[in-house]
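Researcher: Please translate sequence to structure tokens.
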Amino acid sequence: MRRALNALYDGAAWLAALFMVGLLVMVLLGIASRLLHFHVPGTDAYAGYLMAGAGFLALAHTLKRGEHIRVTLLITSLKGSARRALEIWALAAGSALAGLSAYFSCRLVWQSHVFNDISTGNDATRLWIPQLAMAAGTLILLVALVDELVLELRGQRVTIDNAARNE
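Model: Translation complete:
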């Protein structure tokens, strides 16, 4: 199971990286089209879709690598069971919030599909298509947070101290 979860997180990160490459291509295409006087409709919109998708798809991988921003002032001052209780509370709260985000993201995709919602730009993209990356990213983040919570409850969670890593 651990290998499958890690493959899921890594796969989402690779997809986020591909989205970043696509973002670069859209920006360069937009610049080139202005300089060479030709028009490619929707480059700005697609760059936005790719940037949002990359951000959401990278969330779980970033969490698992200990790269999310955390306020560690309080947690580093605690030891033993108090620190563990705070970690469990934070992971449970994060899981609940990620669950809400995933639910509403998936609901938005479904509603956009049902209502045939399209972008107002000249690209006229069916909005449920770029919204899929947001929904997938929030679902994978939910899985990662629940994974971390279960590991913490079992006493198997390995925390990565970024301050120690950067020294």
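Researcher: Any highlights?
Model: The mean pLDDT is 91.
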